[in-house]
Amino acid sequence: MTESASTKQRLSDTVAEALQRDILGMAVGEKLPTEAELTERFDVSRTVIREATRLLVQRGLVTVKPGRGMTVAEVDGRVIADQYGLLLRLSEGSFEQLMELRLVLEVEMAALAAARRTDTQLEELDALNERLRAADPSSAEFLDADLDFHEKIAEASGNPFFLLVMRPVNDFLSDSYTAGTGYPSEAGHTVDEHFEIAQAIRSGDPARARFAAENHLRRVVRNRVLLTRE
Questions:
Q1: Quick one: residue 217, left, alpha or beta (phi over 0 = left, psi -120 to 50 = alpha)?
Q2: How many CA atoms lie within 13 Å of 83's alpha carbon, on the beta-carbon side?
Q3: Start and end of every HTH gntR-type domain (predicted)?
Q4: Cβ atoms within 10 A of the Cβ of 212, count?
């Protein structure tokens, strides 16, 4: 019997869900059955298996390489992050609205980082601040060190969802600064404020870290508004 388009879609969804359950119990890099084996297992056409495979690739669960077949991928949320970044680029939101999002997220991220950070993460925050201090404020190195610092705070919060959200936001900011008029904040203030945030996190004081992060982000917004009025 010939499969209709809707039947193929339902079957591919069912196969993808079944394989996803298998994948969640497998190790990264482990090989899945071949296309022929999956066709026999699920009693469906190769077209259905290929569509199910495409769905799993879209979800970031597997990789497919010639001669190697389908293997379990390391799930790092990058697919979701890419989609989020695309939505940011297609939105009609302003820079100020994006900074509102950062305020909501990053102020609490800093507070959590103060309570949960590791010694290694403290060292990495200090290293990023030294990179920032040494870099030319008009260079890509300065911008990279700035955004990497904020990502490291997300990591230090101990909550993987924060990092998942912050990466595409930072990618969007990086592209915007590079394509626009350049870095939007006063570099000297940024360096000082980053050091204060790092010190607050090192001290293990969530309230101080929260205040330092909010002070930094609100100052960036004020500076951006002044620049746009000139």
A1: alpha
A2: 6
A3: 5-75
A4: 24
Q: Residues of 51-76 as b/e, b for ≥16 C-beta within 10 angstroms?
A: bbbebbeeebbbebeeeebbbbbeee
Give the Cα separation of 42 and 24 in Å (integer).
19
Residues 220, 214: Cα–Cα separation, whole Å: 10
Q: Which two tokens stand for residue 94?
A: 């302003």
Could you tell me the two tokens for 195?
């050091």
pLDDT digits 0-9 by tens, 156-193? 999 999 988 888 888 888 877 776 655 555 788 999 99
Could you say which of 3.40.50.300, 1.10.10.10, 3.40.50.2000, 2.60.120.10 is the CATH number of the domain covering 5-72? 1.10.10.10
Residues whose CB falls within 8 Å of the CB of residue 210, separated by 6 or more in sequence, listed in order: 107, 108, 110, 111
Residue 1 pLDDT grade (very low, low, confident, very high; cuts 50, 70, 90): very low
| DSSP sequence for 11-54 | HHHHHHHHHHHHHTTS-TTPBPPPHHHHHHHHT--HHHHHHHHH
Would you tell me the crossing angle of helices 5-23 and 35-42 to the nearest 10 degrees? 110
* Nearest Cα to Cα of residue 163 among 129, 92, 219, 113: 113
Distance of CA 95 to the CA centre of its chain: 19
**Domain extents for the chain?**
5-72, 78-229
d(CA 94, CA 115): 32
Q: What dotted CATH number matches 78-229? A: 1.20.120.530
